[in-house]
Amino acid sequence: MNVVPLLVFCSLMLVVGSLVLFVHGMRRKDHHHADRLALLPIENDERPTPATRAKG
Predict the structure, then answer these.
(1) Rounded to whole angstroms, how far apart are CA atoms 36 and 33?
(2) Burial 1-14 (b: 16+ CB within 10 A, else e)
(3) How far is 56 from 53, CA to CA, in rounded Å?
(4) Average pLDDT, the chain
(5) In contact, 52 and 46? CB cutoff 8 Å
(6) Distance between CA atoms of residues 3 and 46, nearest Å
(7) Centroid of chain to Cα 28
(8) What does pTM read for this prediction?
């Protein structure tokens, strides 16, 4: 039973750390960066070459 207080302490430290980082990110107003990152997989990576343009 000695490990339970240690696990509770570690869990609380993780929660507090995530809350601190969340508040820090909101104050810096960098939460819009996540929207751009979410849309990156939607963009096409390949550019059309002159040969593909002629076929299309």
Answers:
(1) 5
(2) eeeeeeeeeeeeee
(3) 5
(4) 80
(5) no
(6) 53
(7) 15
(8) 0.53
